[in-house]
Design brief:
Chain lengths: 184, 801
């Protein structure tokens, strides 16, 4: 017996037959008998673009400023530490934007396909239909280590380890299927 | 049916035909002064003039129905300003050439009141008192011959009411509408008896009204006064209201209640035009250009017992069907509109989840048991069989179709004042309490564009507006509406709400997808226990819009299981607990959406936007913008903190249900915002900026592309990358187009377009722990600090094609 692997997140680079059929119905008030003629499928289709610190963030101090100010950092900063008295790992100067088209989100039942495994699986999953293309534009950040959480704290020292810059398109096809497994 | 008047006292002769009774039928109509021509018609040159001061009081007026009684105690008609005085009445009576009775009347300073309302079978509790103050000037003409011939009557009425005051009093506290003015004109109203039915027909009732202020008094010495008698200060106000109406109505009244004696009412009302405005310090929220209708079928009024056997005045309904259109929803100082709203509905008996529901309210005395003996308890049951809600802005319409709702439980109403009584905390204002309410609602699907568009999924879009597509819950708690906003008039809200055994959908398929009603598949928040508290939240209408400022708010949302699939049997991701603690958070709702937007690019002009690869869009004048400021405060206790917990691998009880707290947990503990330092030198980091989010929501046409070659779920064929174009001539209402031209682009699918910007200076997590039921908590991350974030998004959301 071949079963879908029991992992929490399952990426299936494939498309399966869709869920329920939608149907045409009228828009005036419907009695029960008319409701039975209605069909449809849940879920939404999302498109758009997201940018981070396009012109800078809300903080104006000795470290952060607008992107037009070359002497200041205008990106966002994310710091965390794994020891109570240790230093901080930092993602600094986070900026950029990305755009996508056709990210879908719905719940579907898998009871067929997957070379016969679907019939055995026979469960409901949360399906994220991946957008075919995600366009990245000037996405950048730095990995660093820092002595303090805030760059404005006394004794602040930071070592930039490396920088990342991304531009271009990423092809993301198929569906991300998410379903519970194990003991809740 | 028996009516008794006990210990009545008449100060002077009263001709009650004009004093009390005339104002009742005219209440069905609108209130405009008669023009001179009409006045000359109904006023004779000679007749009788009666001038009198009227004072009537009775210890009790009782109504009996099948042996059960309701007593209106402390009945009085007299002066509104002098408890021992009389009301001035001047009546000129004339008999016209057509044998009509013509009255011109003037009433000054009159109060009609009941000190208390009590049900005979419910000793120790009562509903509280009502009072109605007013001065009237008007005309009344009565002639023989109704709509069906000579055995009936026809009357014309017009009056102006000034100095009106309508109040409700419980346990020494009052909530009342103050400074009411009203003009009503109802001409050609007919009254006929057909068989055993009294038929009242009002072909046209027009009028306008205004409430200067809605006031609260917590001083037992006050009774029907605008200023506190102890301090002399004007009583605080919730704001004022005004409106107009133009109606046609037909009402049938018959004897006979749901059981034995009682009253039956059927009516049909058409709203030709109406408006409703709420005023707050000169700014308004306005519902304009209201039209519609509502038909009441088989409303019965009985003195009876509720399903739990408690004595009550029962109002049970056969059904109500109606539709309302609101042409413009405006708020703020500049008269900008959010758009148009349409609601159609049928309230009638139906079975939900295997239980039968009807529409009924059983009025009882008492209210909240700790608030005092006076108050109102409404044993309530409702069944909304079907409703459609639509929202239109800039000509684009989205319809949420197949809304159903059901529920039953007790609602209590008390006017309360601040303090702890019998162990219960009360607040100043009108307290609406909820006791053991079990209720739910669900939406079947979404339609976009027009009434004949196909029904489809996508109710998840409602999450953007803060509503779950489906929700079942048990509700207890209260909301107390106090007078006064952040400044001047407005509303102050204190509330404590508990929801238990909740089941809410984040994603939901239709409840009827073509083969009859079936359990909705979706992503479900289940086994939900919610405990939420609000203190001193103010609501004001400002120049900008509707401003809501939370004083202190804390809550715990304990999701026993997050299930995928069926809400009862679906597999669970585990338990999630979200705790929130906010100080000074706010929300402002502003009319108007995003306006001109560069989607997918950068630039403030069309050319700059296009050059950057974006699409320049004008999303119109209407829409909604929501400005949020969330101040996440540092933890002060286990109850008051911001935290997130995910628990899995729980042990189960004998019934197989997971035991909360017995599994492994991931805890994000003490999440809080900050301005990034102590700038005011008080030794504590400032926390005034919070997380600020601006959301501009429009209904707008958006590009939707096919993701795969071949037929979609409805069998419409297209190639990957083709655009979905709406086309009413196509069998399924749309088609796929490879390279849409301008005319096709104008028919892109409608959805919600959201322009969002979220900013925070600093957001921190104190610690992230992994908790084992035996080993205890181990800290995995000793602090997270995020700084200087400004995230912008242009998103469009449409139903899945």
């Amino acid at each position: 017996m071949k079963m879908l692997p029991k992992i929490l997140f399952l990426v299936v680079v494939s498309s399966l037959a869709g869920g329920g059929r939608s149907a045409i119905a009228e828009l005036s008030l419907l009695p029960d008998e008319r409701l039975s003629e209605v069909s449809g499928q849940g879920g939404i289709y999302l498109s758009g673009d997201i940018s981070i610190n396009e012109m800078g963030g809300p903080v104006e101090n000795s470290y952060f400023g607008r992107c037009s100010d070359a002497g200041k950092k205008c990106g966002a900063r994310f710091a965390y530490r794994l020891k109570e008295t240790g230093g901080w790992m930092v993602l600094d100067e986070i900026r950029g934007n990305f755009a996508f088209e056709g990210l879908t989100l719905r719940v579907r039942n898998i009871d067929s396909g997957f070379g016969g495994d679907g019939e055995l699986f026979n469960r409901d999953v949360l399906e994220l239909g991946l957008p075919n293309t995600v366009r990245f534009n000037d996405v950048r950040f730095k990995i660093a280590s820092s002595s303090t959480a805030r760059p404005t704290d006394p004794g602040f020292q930071q070592t930039d380890i490396f920088s990342v810059e991304m531009r271009g398109e990423v092809i993301m096809e198929g569906n991300l299927l998410v379903f519970p497994t194990g003991n809740p | 049916m028996v009516m008794t008047l006990v210990n009545a006292r008449c100060a002077l002769v009263s001709i009650m035909i004009y004093g009390g009774l005339i104002s009742i039928p005219t209440a069905y109509g609108d209130l405009k002064s008669l023009d001179d021509a009409a006045m000359s018609d109904i006023s004779g040159q000679s007749g009788i003039t009666l001038e009198m001061d009227l004072g009537v009081s009775a210890d009790s007026v009782s109504y009996f129905d099948d042996g059960k009684g309701i007593h209106l105690e402390g009945f009085r008609v007299g002066s509104a300003t002098d408890p021992n005085g009389q009301a001035y009445h001047l009546v000129m009576i004339d008999i016209g050439n057509d044998a009509s009775l013509n009255l011109d009347y003037l009433v000054e300073d009159r109060r009609i009141e009941f000190g208390d309302i009590r049900l005979a079978g419910a000793p120790g509790v009562s509903m509280g008192g009502l009072f109605f103050d007013h001065s009237l000037q008007g005309t009344f003409r009565l002639r023989s011959g109704g709509a069906l011939g000579g055995s009936g009557y026809t009357f014309d009425s017009a009056y102006t009411m000034t100095g009106g005051r309508l109040g409700y009093r419980t346990n020494g506290n009052e909530f009342f509408l103050d400074d009411i003015t009203m003009d009503v004109e109802a001409l050609g109203v007919t009254l006929d008896v057909v068989g055993s039915t009294l038929q009242l027909r009002a072909p046209r009732v027009v009028g306008s009204w205004e409430v200067g202020a809605i006031r609260f008094s917590g001083n037992p010495l006050n009774h029907g006064v605008s200023a506190d008698v102890s301090s002399g200060l004007t009583l605080p106000s919730y704001g004022g209201m005004s409106g107009h109406f133009d109606l046609t109505s037909a009402t049938d009244i018959q004897a006979g209640g749901r059981d034995g004696e009682g009253l039956r009412i059927d009516s049909e009302t058409t709203i030709h035009s109406a408006s409703f405005l709420y005023h707050d310090d000169g700014n308004v929220v306005a519902l304009r250009d209201i039209t519609g209708y509502y038909d009441v079928n088989d409303l019965r009024i009985d003195v009876t017992t509720d399903p739990k056997g408690r004595e009550a005045l029962g109002l049970t309904l056969g059904g109500v069907q109606g539709e309302f259109n609101v042409g413009a929803v405006e708020m703020g100082g500049n008269g900008k509109s959010l758009g148009q709203v349409n609601v159609s509905f049928i309230l009638e008996d139906r079975i939900f989840n295997g239980e039968s529901y009807r529409n009924a309210v059983f009025l009882q005395g008492g209210g909240h048991p700790d608030a005092g003996p006076q108050g109102l308890r409404l044993a309530t049951e409702w069944s909304l069989r079907l409703s459609d809600l639509s929202y239109t802005e800039d000509g684009n319409r989205v319809i949420f179709s197949g809304l159903q709702s059901w529920g039953r439980g007790d609602v209590t109403v008390n006017v309360t004042r601040e303090g702890v009584k019998n162990g219960t905390q009360f607040f100043d204002g009108l307290r609406v309490g909820f006791e053991g309410i079990k209720a739910g609602y669900r939406i079947n699907g979404l339609r976009v564009g027009s009434d004949d568009a196909p029904l489809q999924g996508g109710t998840e879009l409602l999450l953007a507006l803060g509503f779950y597509p489906a929700y079942e819950f048990e509700l207890d708690g209260h909301v107390t509406l106090g007078p006064g906003g952040a400044s001047g008039e407005g509303i102050t809200i204190n509330s404590d709400i508990q929801i238990s055994n909740g089941r809410a959908a984040i994603i939901a398929a239709p409840y009827d997808s073509g083969s009859g009603e079936a359990p909705q598949k979706g992503l479900w928040i289940t086994d939900l226990d919610y405990d939420g508290h609000l203190r001193s939240m103010t609501v004001d209408v400002t120049e900008e819009g509707l401003a809501i400022v939370k004083g202190e708010a804390w809550s715990s949302m304990d999701i026993g299981n997050l299930r995928v699939g069926d809400k009862l049997a679906g597999a669970s991701f585990g338990r999630f607990v979200l705790q929130k603690y906010e100080l000074g958070s706010s929300m402002t709702i502003v009319p108007g959406g995003a306006g001109e937007v560069c989607a997918g690019g950068v630039g403030g002009t069309e050319s700059a936007c296009t050059a950057s690869g974006g699409v320049w869009e004008n999303r119109g004048e209407e829409g909604i913008t929501v400005k949020l400021k969330q101040i996440l405060a540092r933890a002060v206790s286990d109850d008051k903190k911001n935290a997130f917990t995910w628990e899995t691998n729980r042990k189960t009880d004998a019934s197989g249900n997971p035991i909360n707290g017995s599994g492994n947990q991931l805890v994000l503990n003490d999440i809080y915002t900050s301005d990034g330092g102590d700038f005011d030198g008080d030794g504590v980091d400032d926390n005034t900026f919070g997380v600020r989010t601006d959301l501009a929501v429009d209904v707008y046409r958006t590009r939707v592309v096919k993701k795969e070659d071949g037929a979609d779920s409805l069998g419409v064929v297209g190639s990957r990358g083709d655009e979905k174009i709406m086309d009413s001539s196509a069998p399924e209402g749309y088609r796929y187009v490879a390279d849409p031209g301008q005319s096709d682009q104008a028919n892109r699918p409608l959805g919600f377009a959201v322009k969002a910007e979220s900013r925070f200076k600093e957001l921190s997590i104190n610690n992230i722990d992994l908790v084992h039921p035996v080993g205890g908590a181990q800290t995995a991350v000793y602090g997270v600090k995020m700084q200087n974030f400004d995230i912008k998004a242009n998103l469009t959301a449409t139903p899945i094609p």
